Amino acid sequence: MSNDKSRVMPSPGMGPDNEAFVSAARGGRFVLRWCDDCGKTHWYPRAVCPHCMSTKTQWRPASGRGTVYSYSTMQRVDPPYTLACVTLDEGPTMLTNLVGAAPGGWRIGMKVAVQFQASDDGTPVAVFAPA
Ligand SMILES: [Zn+2]
User: Fold this and answer.
1) Lower CB density within 10 Å: C or N end of the chain?
2) Is the dihedral of CA 73, 74, 76, 81 positive or negative?
3) What SS3 class is residue 124?
4) Taking 90 as the threshold, does the pLDDT of residue 79 lie above it?
């Protein structure tokens, strides 16, 4: 164990579904998968649209902004960390980590913005901080 008090998250791994996401994240860009047929976006990235089953989906730049829908702070670990569902401005809700505020500082409805943190193998992971 190091003395570093920031939590290092496990790697999400890399596969065909998230390769483009990870590649964009390495460049500091947040992208989401959009559907050309129904116009909706989705998370987690999939080749087939979960809304209408179309295969005409593509990556597009996204705002990286969202709203805390729910959260839970893990207090019994050191350091504590906060898991949350964040509803992105583009529509989908993402299970993620909140960073950049004290464990008691989160509220449902808070505006947050994406950041990337390196996971245990260096793969960037999207987390959200107060906007
Ligand atoms: Zn669709």
Assistant:
1) N
2) negative
3) strand
4) no
What's the whole-model pTM score? Answer: 0.90
Q: What is the distance between the alpha carbons of residues 90 and 66, in angstroms, rounded to a whole number?
A: 8
Query: Strand, helix or coil at 94?
Result: strand
Output the CA 118–ligand 1 centroid distance in Å. 31
Q: How far is the CA of 29 from the centre of ligand 1 (A)?
A: 23
Bridge partners of 2, per DSSP, are: none
Cα 78 to Cα 91: distance, rounded to the nearest angstrom: 33
Residue 1 banded pLDDT, cuts 50, 70, 90: very low
Percent of the chain with pLDDT over 70: 96
Quote the ligand 1 centre to 7 CA distance (angstroms).
Answer: 36
